[in-house]
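hey so u asked for the seq, here:
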Amino acid sequence: MTNNKQQIVGMISSYQGLKPSPIDWLWMQSPHPCGVWGNIQIMASAPKPDFLLLYNFNDFPNSNPQQQRFGGLLSRFRKQAQPSQPNIQTRLRGVPKERIISLVREPPFQKLQQKRIKEYQQAQKYCGYVSGPDEFAPNPDYMPAIWYINNSFRDLNEMGVPEKNRSCCWVTSGIARTENHRQRLGFLRLLTESELEFDLYGRDLPDWAGGYGKVGNKWNVMAPYYYNLAIENYADNEWYVSEKLWDALLAWCLPIYYGGSAADKLLPPGSFLRLPSRDEKGIAYLKEVTANPDAWHEAKDAIAEARQIILHELNLLNWLSKFVEQTL
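ran it, structure tokens below
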């Protein structure tokens, strides 16, 4: 059955930065005004959307009766301390279950595996489609692409290669919540103690790391560089790949990537390099590659191809448009 009416896709998320959901979230990922892409329009706060995207949403009611009773007691004590949240049915805005999509984006850390499985089970009670980048998800799949390059879609799609006059950069953070985060920080310490020439940007970095601080638009700091370190917090399955890779390529960098095998299946050969390890061997590799821009020049055509795949195929709006088309 074909429906020519443009479908409105609302969105809710448990990400603090998206509470309440910005109306124009994702509008930068379309060449058309107001988040239109094909047969859909993404309108996060639409009161009566045709479809609803639960984007890394995990605020479902607790299914354990004992915990629910305990939670009810706690909520009475907290009632005056914070405003009450609308119930789950109100938040779902009357959208039928088969039109509610849950997409999980967080890395599937082994330590949090049981929590993740329970969240998937909860999501299935309310959502017709539940997916995440791990084998425990009802529908294991790669995460559709979002990016933190705040240039317009038209600029990214049509502009040529920006002026490149710097060697290598890394945009990261000082987060140390998990062992994976701490391993990344351990590699950062090795890098700062080596003689590798690279520029460091990011939020909450430790004092010993130095760096230039928090970045607003990654394009501004990444575009001048030939190479970018793109190091995932998780690299242990065939599904997980994040915006770290998309951001680097959209800025016309050649990513030196540490991550799982998903990138090999999604992007053309030669569009990124593999960091062999996060140790002295990896540092030696970085020194060899970044000593000159030759590798970037060799990869330029593959980078151009990868950028088009990210913008037009892997794009979350394109994924949503295809889902809507298949559902109607």
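The CA atoms of residues 5 and 259 lie 40 Å apart. The chain has two domains: 7-142, 153-314.
lmk if thats what u needed
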